[in-house]
Structure formats: C-alpha cells, structure tokens
C-alpha cells in the first residue's frame, strides 16, 4: 500500500479510529491491533510475503530469548551469528542472488568458460532491506547487553512490522521503538497535530517536488545523448531533488503517521542539501541507515581508532556496503565508493566533525563562505547521484561524458522545466527557513492566527492535488 | 481527541466549501480529453459540412474511415458527410457526454453512430486523472449507480465500481479544477487523421507522428508474442452470439432506448455499433432483443466476419490494421445501408 494512494486514505482513518476508540482498553489489545493493521498494510501489496516478515520476527524474537539464557560467550556468539546468517541470508537471496549469479557468469566468461545456470525470477519483498536491519539491531543490542530481550511476542511483532516505517524506514533501533510498545499511549493533541503537519509536508515533498522533478530527470537520463551539457546538469540536479523529496517525504509521512498513534520515530533527514561538507551531509542524509552502519559495522571494525590506514579501510567498507545495500547493481557500489573518496580528505585532515550545527545558525542568510561550501557539497552529491540514478556504469560514464562534450549544444527547456524550477525555488526557501526544525514547516505561522495556518495548509493540499506529477513509485521501495 | 477530530472535520469541510465555491465561480468547460478537444475544435470550424458522426473509443477512431463510409453510402442515394469522433479510452459514460455536447451545438446532424461498450470500471491508476472526472456530474453518477445496481456484478464489485466514480467526482469538486486552466491541449493535429476526418489507423499513426509511439508498439508487441488471443476472442464472440444467452441490464436497455427516442425527436437517427474483439457481449445481445434492436449493427460476430479476428487484418489485440479498417468500414457501410433501406 502506497502512502499516496486512495487505499491508504481509507486505511489510515479507520485504523486511527479503531486504535484510539476500540482497542485502547488495554495495551496488549492495542499492540495486537497494530500487528493486525501492519500485516494488513503489508499484505495489501502481496500477502505471500507476510510469511517472510513473520518468520524474520519469530527468528529474532527466539534468538533474543536464547541469547539471554546462553551462558557462554561461544553460545551467545553462535546465536548472534545465526541471526545474522538468517536475516542477511534472506536479504542476500531475495535481493542479490541474480546479481551474484550474473557476475559469476561474467567472471567465468573472462576465463573463457561458458556457464548458464537458470536465473531465478525472484520478487524482491518490499521493505526487506529495512525490517531485516531493524530486527538485526535488536539481536545485536541484546548480544551486547545494551538491551534486555523481550518475552512479549506481540510487542516484538508490532515493533518489526509497525506499518508507518515498515517499507521504507526510518530503520528504527529496538532501544528506541520497542520500549514504546511497553508503555501506555495517551492521545496527545499537540503531537497529533504535529504529526498531521509533518505528513502534509511529506506528501508535498513526495507528490509535488519528487514526482515533478522525476519527469525532468527521467527526460534527460533517458535521452542523454541528444541533450546539451546544461540540460544534463539540470537532469542531475533534478534527480537530487527527486530522491530527496521522495525519500525524506516518505520519512516525514512515516514519522507523522507514527505521531498520530503516540509513537516517536527517529529523525531520518536533517536538511542534507544545506551541508557545508560531505561529512555533514552524511550526518544529515538517511540518518537511520548511516548510524546503523556506524554502530553495527564501522565501530566493530575499529572505526576511526587505530591507524589511518585502518580508518580509511573502514570508511571505504562502510560506504561501499551502504551503496550495495541500496541495490544489486555496480552503480550503487560506485556511488558508495565515490562518497568514500569525497570523505577521505576530511578524514585524513581530521575535519570530518567540523560543521555540527546547521548552516547559518541563528541567522537568516548564509555568508558567502557558507554559500560556496553548500553549493560545492551539493555539486559533489549531484555528481555521485548520477551513478545512483544510472542504469549501469556505462550509462553513468556516458552521462558524465556527455555533460562535457555537449556543453556547446543549446539547451531547449520546455514549460515543465520552468514550472519545476519555480517549485524548487519555493521549496528551497521553505526548507531554508525551517532548517532549525525537525521538518521545514513545523513552526511555520505558529504564532499567527489559526486562519493563517489553515490557509497555508489549504494551499499545500491544493498544490498536492493539482500539481502532482505523474505518480512515481517511491524510489526506496526497490530496497 | 474530540478537539482533534472536530478540527479535522472543520478543516476538511472548509476546504470542500471553499473549493466548490471557487470551482463554481471560476471553472469553465474544460476537457480532460485532449484528443476530443482537438477534434471538437476542428469540427466546430467546419461543422456545417458534416451531418454524421461516429463516437466511441479507439475501436472507432482506428477502424471507421469516413472517406470510405461516405463514398459507399452516398453512392447508394444517401447524402452523408461524416466525421470520426472516436478517441482512445473514451468509454461510457464519457461517450454520452461527448454525444450530448455534439447534439447540443449542431442542429444539422442526421446520423450518429455510437460504439457499444460496457461501462468503464475505473482503474485505480486513473482515479485522479482529469480524463476520468472532467465530465462527471450528478446525472452521470446516477447513471453509473443505476447501471451497476442493475448489473450482474457481485456486491463488492458494485461497491467498488460505484465508489470509484464518487471518489473521482469528489476529487473533481475539491481539486481546484479551475487551476486546470493552466493545462494546455497536449495532443497534436495527428488526431484529426490524414484526411482531417478524424480517422487514423494505427499504421498511419506511426508514419505520421512519434506521439504515443512507445505505447502503440508495446501493444503490438503483445499480439506478436501471443497471436492465440485473437482466436480466443473469436471463440468468445461465436459462443456469445451463437448461444443467444445474455444478461440483460434493464436499466442500461432503457437508457439506450431513451437516447434513441430523444434523438428521434431531433430528427437524428442513432445507430449502435458492436465492435469486434471484446471480452463480453452479453449486455449487447440483450439490447439487440429490445425495440431498438434494428438500430444495432453487429460487427463482432466472428461466424459472420471472421476476418476481424485474423492476424493479417490486425495491428494489436484490440485493433485492426489499416487493411482491416478498410474492410471494416466497407462492411459497416453496407450493414448501415441495409438497415436504412429496411427502415
């Protein structure tokens, strides 16, 4: 079920009313209802994959309990490895089987051997990259004694399958989300209104910004050979906003929806395109994933402690694995590697923790230096996004090549481009003005009369209805 | 909680009221059907030349050539100058809207040919597309509701069928339709056809323009992958017309009879065409048994017209190629003539 669908439009109010009016008699009942609603939400896409999420939940629930009862380090490690094997095994099979097979075949060909095993027609379960990481965070935290395992199967299933963040994150930590299922939840008016407001902004980002930018980006990525260099640069920039609008919009809707039910999810995006360097960008982009890799991969590998060589090695591992997590294609690995290369100079010069506060904190306008830094960082990310968006390494290389070779061609922008440009200008201004908040419009017109706020919300809703681009699947649904 | 729900309700109510008022004040007749808009604008420039038109979906647009039709019919004593108003994906009840507009603005029409179709079950993907709701009003909602209630759909299907139209209509009311004035007609002159009579075969389409190129070729590809579909469609036709079994939708029958009577009063003869290659003909067989049965030209019976199910006359699963359209129009003209003479 997509958030921007009529199905969700019916689903959410029904679930909301039942949750607060019918199933609020006791906590267990309410959590059970969350499980039912979440399974319904997920099963709406394909009921067969409910078996997978159920299996994944049961495995890690059981392993969590076994970990607490295991007395020897070897036994505990065995359980952890079992959880890793099963979760990553499922993820690896569904997401990467054909990728590895194709590369295996290609490698054999290089040595002159022909090898043609059957390629499997595997359907990638929506959200598998997210919920497997979420359950892994549970078992790893239990293993590390950072979290007590739960014996409440219903709460655990609700934690794994919680519908607002099930299919595209944020990837919640068990230590943050699971305890919220153990506490009574009381309806909070301010929190619910905040949630609706965040959902509204999320829909605007997804439906208006992302979908409209996608039309422009697709135009140039599909026809890069005939496009001018300027048009191709525009394509890359518009893709940058497409992916940001898509993913951060979805996160806003997920976080906002959770607030309606009394849950607080972690922030996933913190205005990353206003970053002054790449390190800051990675502290602000897909925070739930980057912190997951930091805590469960980077730090266990040694992090930045130890020699510089080790730090560099660990940095590359993190970024490449992060790239690979996004998709079974060499382009994602290349994207990860490029970001690692961007990060290296900051790591080596120990400048990767410079810009911890947001740009132009306490000021309306950024100074010249900040603007230069922001634009430079944005340009670097756009260059990397070309690899992310491209169908293949060759496509990415050809696209970049065409930017330089076709610079002399005259760009021909259609009306749609100017329309999208105006939208982006409006969007960037709103985001800039709201950059100190959790999301851009959190406090917009907060001190004004209700009529002013409601008029603003009205215009956003009308914009969503009228300016919606052609519906694109949420990009992160492929993960 | 009460305050929250009350505020949401109030907010939504204000949106609806505000937008409905703006829609009423500022909206003008907008077409969500670019092809039809292009054809209507052209037709209105030269309307005094035409006294006959064909209305329907792409099965009309791609199959009926007015040049051939007029030449055969006129050679037999009638005076006809026809225009093809068929446009892709124009189903019921949108066709009735097109027919109403044409009849309202043109008082020299003698004949109207309306393609018979089942009423469109809106796909979820099209729920908020302008083409789905631009023409909707309470009259068509009433048609949809009564049509569905009198059909043999199961209960859930009826709810879903009717519900989607109401949702689309509600969306039309609140979606600031007046802002759709920003939309321009995005079709090209190719929709008028090579001879500017509204007919364009799919073969000629590909020669004339690159518009819709990908979709047209994809559809053709589906037929080339599996030509047995044609045989299956032929079997459906033979079974349907051979057995004579049908499911009558009494409301639909009455609705169509009313249309015939309404146009009769305006001295316009309304004929219906049953196109080939459909998945079901039950309602049309039922309609054939009513008092307007003589106004129905059956072009779908594979036992009579096997050529319409042959690969050599096909472009894709649903459409004939230009040779097929040629044959189709000739047979249609002769069928029409025999009905006119006998009338």
Number of strands of chain B: 5
**CA distance, first residue to last residue of chain A:** 15 Å
Based on Cα principal axes, name the global outline of chain B: globular
Q: Structural class, judged by helices and strands of chain B?
A: alpha/beta
Report the radius of gyration of chain B as a whole number of Å. Answer: 21 Å
Strand content of chain B: 5-15%
Characterize the overall form of chain A: globular
- State the secondary-structure class of chain A: mainly alpha
Low-confidence stretches of chain B: none
Main beta-sheet annotation of chain A:
none
Oligomer: heterodimer
Give the SSE string of chain A: HHHHHHHHHHHHHHHHHH
Number-wise, the strands of chain A total: 0
Any low-confidence stretches of chain A, pLDDT <50, length ≥5?
472-479
**Main beta sheet of chain B: strand number and arrangement?**
5 strands, parallel
Give the number of helices of chain A: 18
Helix content of chain A: 55-70%
SSE ordering of chain B = HHEHHEHEHHHHHHHEHEH
Task: Give the helix level of chain B as a range of percent.
Answer: 40-55%
| Percent of residues in beta strands of chain A | under 5%
First-last Cα distance of chain B: 70 Å
Structural description of this entry:
The complex is a heterodimer of chains A (479) and B (343). Chain A is mostly helical. Helices cover 67% and strands 0% of the residues of chain A. Chain A has helices at 6-22, 27-43, 50-69, 73-110, 128-143, 153-161, 163-166, 174-177, 189-222, 229-260, 278-284, 287-298, 308-326, 330-348, 368-389, 393-405, 415-433, 450-466. The longest helix of chain A has 38 residues, at 73-110. The model of chain A is unreliable at 472-479 (pLDDT under 50). Chain B starts with a helix and ends with a helix. Chain B is built from 14 helices and five strands. The model of chain B has no long low-confidence stretch (mean pLDDT 89). The longest helix of chain B has 25 residues, at 2-26. In chain B, 52% of the residues lie in helices and 6% in strands. Chain B has helices at 2-26, 34-45, 58-61, 66-74, 94-105, 130-133, 138-149, 155-174, 202-208, 213-225, 228-243, 250-265, 282-288, 322-342, and strands spanning 52-55, 82-84, 111-115, 269-274, 296-298.
